Amino acid sequence: MIEPSLHPLKQQLDVSDPLAALKAEVTRLRLQNHFLRTVVNEMTSGVIVADAQPDYPITFVNRAFCTITGYAPEEVIGRHCLFLQGPGTDQAAVTRICEAIAAARPVHERLLNYRKDGQPFWSQIAISPVRDDQGRVTAFIGLQTDVTAQVLVEQALAEREQLLRAVGKMAQIGGWELDLVTQRMVWSEEMFAIHELPIGEPPTPDVALWFYPPEVHHLVREAFERCLATGAEWDIELPFRTARGQSRWVRSIGQPVWEDGQIRKLRGTFQDITRSKENELALRASEQRYRMLADMLPGTIVFMFDTGLRLTLVAGADLKRLGIDAARFEGQCLTDLFDEPHRSVLLPLCYQALLGQSSRIDYTFRGEIFDTSIMPIERASGQISGGLIVGRNITAERQITADLLRAKEAAERTERAQAAFLSAISHEMRTPLNAVIASAELLLTDTLTPSQRSLIETIRIGGEALLALVNNVLDLSKIEAGRVEIAAEPTDVRAIVHAVLNLFKREADQKGLLIEAVIDPHLPALIVSDPARLRQMLMNLVSNAIRFTDRGGVLITASVIGMATDHPQVEIAVRDTGTGISAQQRSHLFQPFNHVDNDQTRQSGAGLGLAISAQLAHLMGGELTVAGQPGQGSTFTVTLPLQPVAYSPPVTAGQSVASGQSAVLRVLVAEDNEINQQVVLRLLQALGHQVTIVANGVEAVQKVQQQSFDVILMDVQMPEMDGEEATRRIRALGNQIQQPRIIALTVYALADVRERCLAAGMDGFLTKPVRLQDLRNALSTNPVPSQPSTVNTWQSDPVIDWTVFGELLTALVDQQPEIVTRTLALIQHEFQQQLDQLRVSIARGDVEQVQRLAHRLKGSARQIGAVRVAHAAKALEHAATARMQLEPLFDALQYAVTETLRLFAESQSRHENHR
């Protein structure tokens, strides 16, 4: 190619003269070289030429190279072409450049080099080999472009993107953008993580919609369409299900992107708020529980505050009497509400609660004394979300305490130890003691702090111990007065032994003792005796054995002796590996108010149990004896006359009184209603079975994977997981567990319910209320036909089905008479609580809650024979479903409950008088 500037000169030369032609060529080449050098020097990119010698010396650099590097040409010529690298230079890139040069092939790299003054800069380098006419490499030419500014921008963008990605991951916030023209969706990595999808192509909007439950699809569509129509942004919280089926809560924020006056794109954020939503719902539920509890408990006030000391809940039945306006207080800060001296006393304790410390003080407010607890509120994660102030008015209790102290001082000056007075006062003490124990048991069902639970458990245990003492004193007074009547009825010794064994197993386990029973297979299934008194004697003996045994165990045996004689006997022995008894101690062991020793440090009772047991054995035609040596344990033996019931052949091992039924079945009861739990528990215990109770299907599935059961009594309708789903999951476990028989418990007797239960994998069906004979038949492989029940209309129904209630009463009395009082107190509490909840729900217009509560009350009432209450609850349930007026039906239900409780109380009174 001939440059334009050389063309006129060429036309002037005479090329016929060789010398002239040579001169002309030299001149042309010189001009061409000057032209090329000028062009190269004017380039903004650095140019470097290196000779193809082994050390690749530099032979030329242009002006731009010198400007970029700060070196003069004479400082560069002759040096190695890679002399600009330094400590930060990527050696892998240098190696690739060297390999390309050695192979005489072009190479492109981005490299960190260093200027003459030591400052680093980024170069985009392109190196190519230069070949002669024979194809030999004679040199290398490189182009160097300073891309430092570009690299810094790229690094800043990468760091910003990394920061945004990290922040989004920590906050669980994803970002998204939808191009409305191309319908192309772009997601951040966290969007895929929240959806539990692999990173790739995001789903389309229509597909993404199905990650939400169908009932909220319209909310998503409305927000989307409103934004497209009006440009309105959205910010909504929605339930959500991931690709792996995990239930979550998300917060979706979206806004339009305008271009040329039109919405071209939508973009927004997407945040997983499951934890905060659960905390919010839990806090709301907690506040509601505290509010209801405070309103129900007289003399109790509750203040709940957040981490900023702002009151979120003020509740209590006595607020108005104390002049506290809950509506005005809620939302206020404690620092603004408290005046001196309250501020200096309470605020430090509130701050301690926010640090995780609990406090308890007696606090005087407006002349009244409050037992005040200030404690932290912890979330499931362990994070403290606020604090709680619970004040219980103990002014009257303090007065009572003072009065009791004065009474004690007066009593110490007089002697009132006469037997008649002791017997009378024992009767009077039983009722309040039963109330104390029942109240403690009910309190233990609430959400409590460990300290509260420990205190209430102490109250319950102490109350039961005191009640046992009162009962013993009463029994002793009856025995000494000759007023004890011994029953003569069919008695299942096996069932009694197993029931007592199960009753004390937990206590034995807590002491690390082994407790077992061995029963003679020749023992008749039923004998004539007094089952209640036999159970009482055996409980006294086992209780003593465990109390005085620290290592080893306790063995209960039941056998037949003297079968070949005219007077066969049943011998029940309780052997222990405890401290043993000397001959001198045995001489007065069965005398009232005597102990084995008088060491006050030993755990012991009043010394009545053995005396009562010995006298009961005598009244039943037998005797109680003791054998043993100090340090070798003791054996207490009850010997009673053996009188079989009609023809009752011996039961072989593994069989019990119910034909075909196992001696002791391991029964799991899945039932959410507390009254129903207690009723079924008592009925099963009356049949001599081992019983475990859970409150819902989730717990049932977990329990069968932890231990084996023979039978599960499964309530069909329960919270969290119903009985049908629980059955399906248990059957799905297959051979991983010992598959039990599963029997449905339900208030429904409809054919479709039965079919659903059987389809789920259940084996049987029991309709509430559960009758004792029906339960025995269901658990037996050879059931005895029961009489068909009749169904009356609402008008002809009695208030109470005394057949159902009588069976329950009999089962309770057979175990322990005091359980009747506790159970009736529990029924009264449960009915009143459900009435209060119904009243609140009706006032709020929450018909769905009314429907649920009425259904639950209906099941409870049927289980205990409260027919009128069950029908009234059923009518209220149907009215709520049909959105009818509820107040008249609620009044009828309230009247039915009042009448039922009255009749129950009269029945209990008659029962006490009979005893």
UniProtKB/TrEMBL annotation:
Keyword Phosphoprotein: yes
Membrane-topology annotation of the record: Multi-pass membrane protein
One MF term in the entry's GO annotations: phosphorelay sensor kinase activity
HPt domain mapped to chain residues: 816-915
SMART domains xrefs: HATPase_c, HisKA, HPT, PAC, PAS, REC
PTM sites of type Phosphohistidine: H855
InterPro entries noted in UniProt: CheY-like_superfamily (IPR011006), HATPase_C_sf (IPR036890), HATPase_dom (IPR003594), His_kinase_dom (IPR005467), HisK_dim/P_dom (IPR003661), HisK_dim/P_sf (IPR036097), HPT_dom_sf (IPR036641), PAC (IPR001610)
Domain Response regulatory: 666-783
Plastid as UniProt keyword: no
One Pfam family per UniProt: PAS_3
This protein's UniProt keywords: ATP-binding, Cell inner membrane, Cell membrane, Kinase, Membrane, Nucleotide-binding, Phosphoprotein, Transferase, Transmembrane, Transmembrane helix, Two-component regulatory system
Name of the protein in question: histidine kinase
Native source species: Chloroflexus aurantiacus (strain ATCC 29366 / DSM 635 / J-10-fl)
